[in-house]
Amino acid sequence: MKILFDARVHLNYYSGISRYIICLLDAYLTLHPEDEIDLLLNPTIEKTNSIYTILEKHANIRFHTIDLPHMGPRNYISMKKVISSFNADVYHYPHLDAPFKTGNTPVIATIHDSNYSRKIKKFNDPTGLKTQYFKWAIKKTLKHSKKVLFVSESVKEELSKLHGYSTNDKRFEVLHNGLESDFNDIDEEVLEAERKKLNLPSSYLLYVGQIREHKNITRIIAAFEEYKKSNPGIHLVLAGHNYLNEALTQDRIHQLNEVSNNTLKLLYHDCQAVVFPSLFEGFGFPIIEGFSFGKAVITSNRGATAEVGNEHAILVDPESVEEIVKGMELAVNQEFVSTSKIDYAKMFSWEKNAIQLRKIYQEVAQQS
Predict the structure, then answer these.
(1) Are 53 and 77 in contact (CB under 8 A)?
(2) pTM of whole model > 0.90?
């Protein structure tokens, strides 16, 4: 089978979508060496980028730089010729604004979240134009794609209702994101070197994610300020780029702007608990990452975070500082390492995802 996979949305910084693309393709290429993948990349991607260093070991992938933006008019007007030139069996676009003029090549799209349907946005949009674009783009993607993949039931249900589709539409399918099988593997020497480099306190709560409004950072900090009054030894570590340019100079709060994979593993390994009461998510990687280390995870009692957290998470109302404080109290008092959480995290597998994805590719190719 010949697959055209469009990774132009992947940029030189590592995002959730980047992780989806790289980890899924790595698993797919390993499990299905008989298939060929042509990978479309943004020309700004450096050769040292992880998409090259992780995937170039596979013989069944070819890299192509395409100097066309992944958003806006040119994505729709100019991509038809590009896509048709590859004569692929299927074209997979891992974002919400898939080109719909693709000649005879059927489209499969992955939608990670709605990106427009709430008052609080993931992006700056003072004029409202981005919101209107995303709304229009999702509508076109849902209508024209042969298959639409969602990373959670929550996103599928939300967008189906917003755009008037049945959640039983056979074109719509949920494939939960995965977790690298070795994510919680620890090299003790590397771990100790990271500890010395970071010099963090021995007792801390951990938040992983970008510093953005929808991540609920203001309430997380407010809850921690209240919680630390009766817990003088506890600190809060925020691991993620500070897009809001918040000062974050409060006592016992530490912010790490750029975090390597080894640093991330150390943070999960050493933390008391993970705090992730986001206002909305399409999936919520930090939940299963925390679980993979057996840690208690505080997350929101709604949408995808409740779905992914399941009965293993401490679910709180993300709009209630008081509930987040209570969640912190419960989390720190839980068993420090939970084997049931570790076992649950193993259910989220990129290999499992890749096996399901190939069946979808075959199904779509045969229908066309």
Answers:
(1) no
(2) yes
